[in-house]
Design a protein that fits this description.
The chain is an alpha/beta fold and 245 residues long. The protein has 9 helices and 7 strands; from the N terminus they run βαβαβαβαβαβααβαα. The longest helix has 20 residues.
Length: 245
């Protein structure tokens, strides 16, 4: 079974068209072997009401409403908790991802990979405020972690659920979840996916979120390296202080 998780925050104008495209993709390929989990992350523009209306006509759609805006990571975590499928697909609700790429991610997953990451090769975001910072960030993340991906920030990703069951999400970790999975031994593939300019609503990305992502990256690297060998960290640190003394 396939579980598609979509976090929404103030995306009222995108709800109807996005769900229509998703339903067209899933109903023709996967019949009843799927669910669409929409998580409203404390929207204030009527997004939840729009989702509620659509849920009456979209088969296999589940709706979760968070009490306030907890952030995208918390919304995704709620979706994973409720997901019934053994394959988890995550995508944004801003219409910049293409639902028709989802079967390609699933096919790649079926080749034996644990994680399939989308790569927005022809990205439609602003050059100086989004694409250049993202390029630099991708290089830094690959350098720190040793995991070589071209586009960590792409929201469209596919996972085997067992890879996610023991991962606790926080901060901006949803953006580097493949890194965390890779540090825990998951096999990762990356494929090109379509990307479109935003038509409705406003981007939720800020420079501060980029800073938080770097902090979360360091934390993820620490946990992936030392979580099962804490004596290495404290032993090396203690030895350094001993030498200095």
């Amino acid at each position: 079974m396939i579980s598609l998780i979509i976090p929404f925050y103030n995306e009222k104008e995108n709800v109807s068209v996005l769900l229509q495209k998703i339903e067209a993709v899933f109903s023709s390929r996967y019949k009843n072997g799927y669910e669409i989990l929409c998580i409203d992350d404390g929207s204030t523009d009527g997004t939840f009401e729009e989702l509620e209306n659509k849920s009456r006509n979209v088969p296999n759609m589940g709706l979760i409403r968070l009490t306030r805006n907890f952030g995208q990571t918390s919304a995704i975590e709620a979706g994973i908790e409720y997901a019934k499928g053994d394959t988890i697909i995550i995508m944004d609700g801003d219409m910049q991802n293409d639902p028709y790429d989802i079967p390609r991610l699933i096919n790649k997953l079926d080749e034996g990979f644990d994680v399939v990451n989308g790569w927005r090769k022809d990205r439609k975001d602003h050059l100086f405020t989004r694409r250049i910072p993202s390029y630099i960030g991708n290089k830094v993340i690959s350098w720190i972690t040793g995991i070589k991906l071209k586009d960590y920030g792409c929201a469209l990703k596919a996972y085997r659920k067992e890879i996610l069951k023991d991962i606790q999400l926080w901060g901006e970790l949803h953006r580097i979840l493949p890194v965390y999975a890779g540090l825990n031994g998951a096999s990762i593939a990356e494929i090109e996916v379509s990307h479109y300019a935003r038509q409705y609503g406003r981007s939720k990305y800020t420079v501060f979120r980029g800073f938080k992502l770097m902090v979360d990256l360091i934390t993820a690297k620490f946990m992936g390296t030392f979580a099962t060998r804490p004596n290495y960290l404290f032993g090396i640190t203690g030895l350094m202080f001993l030498i200095l003394a």
